[in-house]
Design a protein that fits this description.
seven-stranded mixed beta sheet; D-Maltodextrin-Binding Protein, domain 2; 41% helix; 15 helices; single chain; 2 domains; alpha/beta; 12 strands
Length: 345
Amino acid sequence: MRHRRPRARRPSLLIAGLAAIVAMLLAACGSGGGGHTSSSGGGGRVTLRVGDQGKVLQLPLSLSGADRGAPYGLTYSTFADGPHMNAAFSAGRLDVGYMGDTPVLFANAADAGVVAIAVQASAVNTQTIIARAGSGIHTPADLKGRRVAYTVGTSLHGYLLNQLASVGLNQKDVISVNVPVTSLPTTLAAGKVDAVVYSRMYAAAVARQSPGAYEIQTHPLPVYSVLLASKAALKDPAKRAAVRDYVLRLSRSSAWPKANPDAWVQKYFVDQLKQDPVAARRYFDSTPASRYRPISPAFVESQRVQARLLGDVGVLPKTLDVNNELDPGFNAELTAAFAKAFPAA
């Protein structure tokens, strides 16, 4: 069987193409389409423009009350995935944003003007690989020569490459089908692929849409959610202080979901994501408590591994320097602030 993979595109061109539509995306994410202003930026106060996905940042801050009394304004815009958020950063429309680890590498390669400032680590996989009924796929090794759908440039992409590498394979060993994140379930249901890489929280919903579909056995991998800030925001003293304070508030709020599981499952998984409450609770209970913390050496090493995997298949430059994703000065400031705010952590 002939193995095909997406033709490598320069990350800068990918970001530039997305930037052309970012104004339209942000307009759709404004007051009528998912954007939200949680406090006024008037009275001479700065306002942080925050990129979110599914209110994963905004909701715990609001429910826990951790955003109350912030001496700056907060405006939120919702994005479908990291690559679209990278376009907004590149266009100078965001100060802070949340995404998976893989899009951070693409932002680095495209010189999108951002740095990673905090990470939320999980020892439990939050992504998964779902195979169609009767495919005979049970482990990553069984993906060789099969049609696998994922979204290039997202954390799903990095997750697949890491799983393939765990069994001595790479992207060239599968037939890659690059589709938008929102189209992955229907792509599997239509029988166009043998498997999809998707968020594990939606596995039950995918199985309902594709009867007989199942999660394959995968290897444990470190999983990182990443908070980024624009370099321009960190150069502004007032915004820099606001970003530092925002990360501390976000870290405090991260304890709220596990302390209030019934309310969180209802507000986030059911009301926001429209998920089945039973399946959502089962998924939520399987995930460990975690909080945003300053950039760690473990995260940097994980990024180096992913950069090498993506470079080996021509998706990113082999010369990509992961250290460009970091701001050592800000990380030192944030580390000191965390030690003061969370002395027992």
